[in-house]
Design goal:
The protein is mainly β. It has helices spanning about 75-80, 105, and strands spanning about 10-20, 25-30, 45, 50, 55-60, 65-70, 85-90, 110-115, 120-125, 130-135, 140-145, 150-155, 160-165. It has two helices and 13 strands. A hairpin with a 3-residue loop joins strand 10 (about 130-135) and strand 11 (about 140-145).
Length: about 170
């Protein structure tokens, strides 16, 4: 796992102001998107420092989310938060069953194939309609389908290593 277990895990971003009472639009990275509202406390990156701000209310609105934070009761005050990342601590994540992984734990892992060729590091995990995809950066960028027991042969969180059935020429 990430060497810095105290590093906040980014779960969303404030992307706009909503209404006249200081509500903010949220881009949630959680699945489903309203899960971000279940985490307490939420941390906000203010001028490079993670700070807790009390969530007064939050709800779905159209295809997105809006929230109201303590101390931000006008559009003018809330506007200063637009662009701010939202995070939680690792302790807030529920334990996963064996064989399931949080994307954050896969990012940065080294990917090798069965011929012991290092393909690179996972720089991102992307959701597609059919399955998740590892974006691996090495000598070139590779998109590797996250299909356990097919392309993904093993994951060793301790060694930070993913073994894949993937040709180095792809």
């Amino acid at each position: 796992m990430d060497n810095d277990v105290n590093k906040p895990i980014i779960v969303g971003k404030l992307v706009g102001v909503y209404g006249i009472k200081g509500w903010l639009k949220v881009m949630s990275y959680t699945e489903p998107l309203e899960n971000i509202l279940t985490y307490k406390p939420l941390l906000f990156n203010l001028s490079g420092q993670w700070r807790e701000i009390t969530l007064l209310q939050g709800k779905t609105h159209g295809k997105g989310l809006i929230i109201h934070l303590a101390g931000y009761d006008t559009p003018e005050s809330a506007r200063h938060l637009v662009g701010t990342e939202i995070a939680i601590t690792r302790e807030q994540l529920p334990a996963l069953p064996k064989g399931e992984y949080y994307w954050i734990d896969l990012e940065g892992m080294t990917v090798i194939n069965q011929a012991s060729i290092t393909l690179g590091q996972v720089i991102q995990v992307m959701a597609t309609g059919a399955n998740d995809v590892l974006i691996v950066q090495g000598d070139k960028r590779r998109l590797i389908p996250f299909l356990k027991d097919h392309t993904i042969l093993s994951i060793d969180l301790e060694k930070r290593l993913i073994l894949v059935d993937w040709d180095a020429d792809f």
